[in-house]
Specification:
about 450 residues; alpha+beta; seven-stranded mixed β-sheet
Length: about 450
């Protein structure tokens, strides 16, 4: 579920409201252009910003500090206002009769006075009557185009900064070197395995390929891009890829392989097929296997690895989740992740979460990545990811991928390298379990 309101438009609205952020609650094209869908997602949430969009390109709506409900009554709000965008510029229309600022109707979406109603009467339309508790020019507000192409409601949330970081991390170039040396010198606990295989799983655009590129950049000494990465509504990765990271331009491979998959998508028959996950986990898929979202891999296929060894299997699974989208994860995507997690649990493979784009999610972190464990918002998102995936908070690692930078940053590198260290530790847990199983079997015999 992507926000239609641009980042600049969100920042412009937030600048009117203080140190806040917007969290998407309701999107009519997904949840339905009707009152019940709106109320189910938005009742008792406040303050809120409601936004309408029409085919003429107008972006308009209103703000209220009052929680929505279905009482049928007017509610007092002396801070309510309507707005419309002219490009990135915001035109504001304050409430003129605060006692009638918002009306709580069960068969409509956001209802501002009698002046502006979005999703009016369970229809994808606008009711517009300037002068009824708000004054505005209808042509300026929405161009007299009263058909909605989209309606969104955002909750306005305070941004918090914690008194002190809740995780200890050393932000020094010496720490960066120490982490790199530890990764270079790591050896898997099982002699038959020379490289730990970590499977990256996540929604389209979450940053799986970008994570590999970022790790590769750290060890290359400059920002590089080997895996295909970028913004798209469908997965840019269409093959199963196993990426080995080299230490330096002509250095030897590191003891970790990052396995990239197609992105998960909401709809059935699109994105990574859950049945293919089992084949990947068990080591049946070769590098460059071409995914077919409408049909899982058959064991008769020529490329199918029939008798994989321990070195071919996945030793750790990392779910890659976009910090900006944790709280608006679509139900179908959540269900897919739950199904995958159950499969991984049954196979005893350790799991962690990479929380990406922490800088985009929080201005405090964007200002300085060292604030990542001092951001109340990032901690909230990590807790939400923990609840959604059913993994402990200790299994969640925030990272910032390289996306627009040309030069490396020591602090960004430390976060990325710390994530790799966690993967290697988790893989050690897996090998411990394997060793215990073998020793138990030998004892019984």
């Amino acid at each position: 579920m992507n926000s239609k309101l641009t980042k600049n438009q969100q920042k412009t609205i937030c600048s009117q409201l203080g140190n806040v952020k917007l969290q998407l609650l309701y999107k009519a094209s997904i949840h339905g252009f009707n009152g019940p869908a709106f109320h189910q997602r938005c009742d008792n949430r406040c303050p809120t910003v409601s936004v309408g969009y029409n085919a003429s390109g107008y972006v308009f709506g209103g703000y209220t500090k009052q929680p929505f409900c279905q009482s049928g009554q007017f509610v007092h709000d002396d801070q309510a206002f309507l707005f419309t965008f002219k490009g990135e510029k915001l035109n504001k229309y304050p409430v003129t009769t605060p006692g009638n600022a918002v009306k709580m109707m069960n068969n409509s979406g956001p209802y501002f006075g009698e002046a502006l109603v979005l999703v009016n009467g369970n229809q994808a339309v606008v009711h517009s009557k300037p002068g009824n508790h708000y004054n505005f020019n209808a042509a300026d507000m929405h161009g007299n185009d009263l058909k909605l192409t989209e309606c969104e409601v955002y909750q306005v949330e305070e941004r918090t900064e914690l008194e002190k970081p809740w995780r200890t991390i050393v932000w020094e170039s010496g720490k960066r070197k120490e982490l790199m040396d530890n990764i270079r010198s790591y050896k898997p606990m099982v002699s038959s395995v020379s490289q730990v295989q970590v499977l990256l799983i996540g929604a389209v655009g979450a940053g799986k390929s970008s994570f590999f590129n970022s790790i590769n950049s750290v060890f290359r000494g400059h920002v590089t891009s080997q895996a295909i990465a970028g913004s798209s509504t469908t997965s840019l990765t269409t093959q199963f890829r196993t990426y080995s990271v080299k230490s330096g331009r002509e250095g030897k491979p590191l003891p970790i392989i990052l396995c990239d998959t197609m992105g998960l998508e909401e709809s059935t028959g699109a994105g990574l097929d859950i049945d293919d996950i089992s084949s990947i986990l068990k080591g049946h898929l070769p590098d460059r296997y071409q995914f077919n979202p409408s049909a899982p891999l058959q064991s008769e296929a020529s490329s199918y690895r029939k008798s994989p060894g321990l070195k071919d299997k996945i030793h750790c699974v990392a779910y890659v989740m976009d910090a900006c989208k944790i709280s608006i994860m679509p139900t179908k995507l959540q269900e897919k992740l739950d199904a995958i997690r159950r499969k991984v649990n049954l196979m005893g493979i350790p799991q962690l979460v990479l929380l990406t784009k922490v800088d985009e999610a929080c201005p405090l972190v964007m200002k300085d990545v060292r604030n990542v464990y001092q951001s109340g918002y990032i901690k909230e998102m990590m807790q939400e990811a923990s609840a959604q995936l059913g993994v402990p908070l200790s299994c969640i690692v925030p990272v910032k991928n390289y996306s627009e930078e040309l030069e490396l940053d020591t602090n960004t590198d430390i976060l990325l390298l710390s994530a790799i260290i966690q993967m290697l530790r988790f893989a050690d847990n897996y090998f411990d379990e394997i060793s215990d199983k073998f020793s138990n079997i030998e004892t019984k015999e």
